[in-house]
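Per reviewer request, we include the raw input and output of the structure prediction for the construct analysed in the revised manuscript.
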Amino acid sequence: MARDNIEWVRKNAEGEKIEIKAHQIRERWDFYWRPGRTWGWNVLETPLLEDWLEVLDGVERRVHRRQYPLDEPAKVRRLIRERYPDAEFD
């Protein structure tokens, strides 16, 4: 089941603000970025650990509003550990 997007703003490597959004479709998370509101969305091929942690934070907050099931944060943590095995978070 598709859910609402989780969106945030961060700076890219050049120090410019970019908008990021993550969209979940079943077990898969797709990430997109754009430099400003007037631009279209581009696929973000390799999301940073920082981006995954934003998704985890968004999912954890939305569990309390019953927008995600209780086990969804654990699924996102598993995905982060698969992609970034040396990262320490929680």
